[in-house]
Amino acid sequence: MRSRLSHCFWLLVALCFLSRRAAAAPRLPVRAVNLGGWLVTEGWILPSLFDGIPNKDLLDGTQLQFKSVTQNGYVAAEKGGGAGLVANRSQASGWETFKLWRINETTFNLKVFGNQFVGVQSDGSVVATATSPGKSETFRLVRNAGQNRMRIMAANRLFLQANKDSTVTADYGKSTSWGDDDPSVFAVTRVTGLQGEYQICNGYGTAKATPILKNHWSTYIVEDDFRFISESGLTAVRIPVGWWIASDPSPPAPYIGGSLQTLDKAFKWAEEYNLGVIIDLHAAPGSQNPFEHSASKDGSQDWGTSAANIAQTVQVIDFLASRYAASPSLLAMELLNEPLAPGASLESLKTYYRDGYNAVRKHSSEAYVIMSNRLSSPDPTELLEFAGGLPRAVIDVHYYVLFNSMFDTFTVQQNIDFIKTNYSSALSTVTKPNGWLSGRCPMQRRKSFKCLQMHRWMCMGRQHLDGLTGLSRM
Length: 474
Ligand SMILES: *[C@@H]1O[C@H](CO)[C@@H](O)[C@H](O)[C@H]1NC(C)=O
Ligand SMILES: *[C@@H]1O[C@H](CO)[C@@H](O)[C@H](O)[C@H]1NC(C)=O
Ligand SMILES: *[C@@H]1O[C@H](CO)[C@@H](O)[C@H](O)[C@H]1NC(C)=O
Prior knowledge:
Bound molecules: 2-acetamido-2-deoxy-beta-D-glucopyranose
Helix content: 10-25%
Strand content: 15-25%
CATH architecture of the largest domain: Alpha-Beta Barrel
CATH topology of the largest domain: TIM Barrel
Number of strands: 21
Radius of gyration: 24 Å
Strand order of the largest sheet: 1-19-18-17-16-15-2
Number of domains: 2
């Protein structure tokens, strides 16, 4: 379920700890649809935005394993990193897996298990010791079309070869016919890859990514969708955004400017069709989970590991709250989507949620402030007390009704019933007696993404699971 966490069917349980004040517009219950894949790209969108990328299977974060055809052994970074490369492993696992950082379609850095980069020393030996990549950590991957074979050219313009003593050196200059007798030929297994905002921007490069994303933003969701959402009886939209939106129109590389203007347009349409907007910070600086939908560069998760990183994230919230606080459509700011435990610690999350909450409150006393529970947390109630002290705070809990083939054949009613029966005890655990519950609920998964989008929605009710009865009316 990992890489597709955000765009599928899940439940959102929201406990709104309303202090004694009445709710502002839009009226409760809130029924919202998540406009996923719009301003934060994910690979599942059809038609694929990734198809035009040269070497589209070699994007940032792609994991490759190299097996020497002469040694019949996988290349490993000894000790997982910090030492030399060898080519004598009979099986491939973490130490035998290399993550790509893409410089361009043919040129890459190779990151190893321990997060060091593969590089070549002056004597030609190949080691994984650099903590950041420089010229000698840069490699050209030369493919043999049709066969999953590659040669790896180092910055010294010589190819890596697997020697008889299993060492790997960058000192092979001959041409190849890709045979099993060539020590510079490696059979390559692509273990996995990511398709998120980082990959699409860096995969195309700024110049080519700009028109592609601008076209996506202006065609994927259009005014007519807002009209349809409104006419269908929904009252709000949730819009995932990435942290780089706050530095529009010139975000740091590789991100592309323009998502802010699209969000402005979304607010205009929301106002026109009387819909609320939940702005959801889906991708935080450093990535709050290793998945592509948090715009992770290579599957790493570094959000929240420093005070500066948290402060930078709060700045994004401050920026967005300030920009949209005056809009009658600003329903809620969701401070962060799906931080993953234990990488996102409860301590840094609470620090961030407190500061982010205050940043929203500087600009709006009305907007709800939504705080995601941590994925994989051992205790789903860990934020209840904390959030309970903050007026108009909401806790977002995701329970999925997908990622299991069992759900493939479910009807809408079966989905709803599953939530009521199988998730009822989990939901009671995170629902306080005076709390509010919202279910972000699945309909069937459709081939057409538009249809899929339109079938995701949220409803909110006052009493525990009673809120879910609203679902059957949809
Ligand atoms: C890729 O980058 C390398 C190293 O900077 C450069 O030599 C090469 O020409 C580039 N290739 C393309 C296709 O841009
Ligand atoms: C692989 O080769 C290296 C270098 O010759 C050697 O130190 C290591 O013990 C070998 N490992 C295995 C599993 O054969
Ligand atoms: C869901 O709950 C029903 C009714 O209690 C039960 O029969 C079924 O096995 C449960 N399904 C799963 C996957 O837990």
